[in-house]
Amino acid sequence: MTAGGTRVSSEVDHVTELLHTRAELARARAVLTGTVGVVMTMGALHEGHETLLRAARERADHVIVTIFVNPLQFGPNEDFDRYPRTLEADLEVCRRAGADLVFAPSVADMYPGGEPAVRVNPGPLGEDLEGLSRPGFFHGVLTVVLKLLQLTRADLTFFGEKDYQQVTLVRRMCRDLDIPVEVVGVPTVREPDGLALSSRNRYLSGAERQVALSLSRALRAGAEAAEAGRDAAAVLTAAHVAFGAGQSGARLDYLVLTDPDLEPGPVRGPARLLVAAWVGGTRLIDNAPLRLDPSS
Ligand SMILES: Nc1ncnc2c1ncn2[C@@H]1O[C@H](COP(=O)(O)OP(=O)(O)OP(=O)(O)O)[C@@H](O)[C@H]1O
Ligand SMILES: CC(C)(CO)[C@@H](O)C(=O)[O-]
Ligand code: BAL
């Protein structure tokens, strides 16, 4: 036991400590010297999260994992109550990946004054794509990310490209608000058949799991069309056809081809293809980089 936390594992030279309160975190953080990397999660950890943890382990002297299902980013009809909470299994993943501190606060500890009246405004990009379907989502995400950056005083923070709009907005927030942290994007980890790993994949039945492949299939078809030198319109058409609208069983929310920084305007050269769709009652997202021939 150290600094008021709980020792959850001990190897010859490594201890992962579980902290539940901001006071425990402050005490444990105060004795860390060198660089600190933070990986923020909502738990239900999988190989995608583990890849972020390993990237953090490689780059930073100390690794902090946060596990917090943030009510602020869930809409009234979303899955906050049923979101999977698997702390014991999550701690095992953190231990295996060599995390030093795991911060798993309660809602009351994160928001001691109740719902915060002051929140980060994500700007116009926060209202587009995910923000269109999930109003207030990025206000909630950026607010908790900023709070966790303050509480951990991280030098580096690691975000998965699976949530591409999220990592883009976190970068923009850190730039626009002069937050002294390096934001590291980590490529999406996939199942062998292409499905992007996601905690919400747990909601899928066997049949829905097959239907969910329409997202990565659409991205692959778009990327192949781009590689073949097709123009933006043809790339999007190829992606739509491969998604199988009306036949796949998935309900498309959006399928868009944009600039890699998600800036509005014409797309040339490097680009990003992003997709969101409902599979039964589960909303999934995915995206992929591609390169359009500037002369196409
Ligand atoms: N397949 C993946 N590859 C790389 N990073 C990932 C992957 N899945 C999640 N992450 C990253 O892990 C971090 C924590 O995400 P989160 O805990 O919401 O997991 P999730 O799988 O995205 O969950 P959900 O299914 O609820 O969206 C985020 O930075 C997210 O982008
Ligand atoms: C960044 C995050 C942990 C904020 O709650 C969440 O949006 C997530 O898990 O991607
Ligand atoms: N994976 C990003 C967090 C969310 O969808 O709520």
TrEMBL record:
The active site is at 49 (proton donor). Keywords: ATP-binding, Cytoplasm, Ligase, Nucleotide-binding, Pantothenate biosynthesis. InterPro entries: Cyt_trans-like (IPR004821), Pantoate_ligase (IPR003721), Pantoate_ligase_C (IPR042176), Rossmann-like_a/b/a_fold (IPR014729). The keyword Glycoprotein does not apply. Pathway: Cofactor biosynthesis; (R)-pantothenate biosynthesis; (R)-pantothenate from (R)-pantoate and beta-alanine: step 1/1. Beta-alanine binds at residue 73. Belongs to the pantothenate synthetase family. Catalyzes the condensation of pantoate with beta-alanine in an ATP-dependent reaction via a pantoyl-adenylate intermediate. This is Pantothenate synthetase. It comes from Micromonospora phaseoli.
